[in-house]
Amino acid sequence: MYGLRGQEVINLKIADIDFERKTIHIRQSKYKKDRIVPLSGYMAEGLSKYLKAENPHLWLFNGKEPDGRYSVRGLSWVMRETLKRTSIKKEVNLHSLRHTYATHLLEEGLNIVTLKDLLGHAEIATTMVYLHVAQCPLIKAHSPLDSLYGRKA
């Protein structure tokens, strides 16, 4: 799922998806922390169709692991197989989705601290890497007083 680590995806339970609030509860991820991330309307629609078609019981994605979960290797295989049916020539892997998610949010104006929390990073320095890739518009230096009162001198 867009923006999540592979391990976080395979650990998702059906109960972690809140369609009403449009959120996903990531439990005990890296650094043993929980976090809540937004669920896109598009993703919610796709997940609803998937749940009706596949009817999983506990884990969101059923797999062949002994506990019934999917494996990260399995996710990577699905991505490779899906890429073969596209015209994408760029070298892409599972982590590319997470990287793209972060870059798009920065380019859309999300602040770096909120992005850090969404990605579940322990250190802001880890998140800062995405600033080098994102193509954010430069804002000319100005006094906040001018923008607060809606006029330019």
Descriptive notes:
There is one protein chain. With 153 residues, the protein is mostly helical. The protein has one domain (6-148): hpI Integrase, Chain A, CATH 1.10.443. Helices cover 42% and strands 7% of the residues. The chain contains seven helices and three strands; from the N terminus they run H-E-E-E-H-H-H-H-H-H. The chain has helices spanning 6-10, 41-54, 72-84, 94-107, 112-119, 124-128, 144-148; strands at residues 17-18, 23-26, 35-38. A three-stranded antiparallel beta sheet has the order 1-2-3. Strand 1 and strand 2 (23-26) form a beta hairpin. It is globular, with a radius of gyration of 19 Å. The N and C termini lie far apart (47 Å). The model has no long low-confidence stretch (mean pLDDT 89).
List keywords for this structure.
mainly alpha; hpI Integrase, Chain A; single chain; 42% helix; three-stranded antiparallel sheet
- Counted by DSSP, the helix tally is 7
Q: What is the CATH fold-level name?
A: hpI Integrase, Chain A
β-strand number: 3
Q: Which secondary-structure class do the elements indicate?
A: mainly alpha
CA-to-CA gap between the ends?
47 Å
Shape: globular
Instruction: Just name the CATH architecture.
Output: Orthogonal Bundle
CATH superfamily: Intergrase catalytic core
In the CATH scheme, the class would be: Mainly Alpha
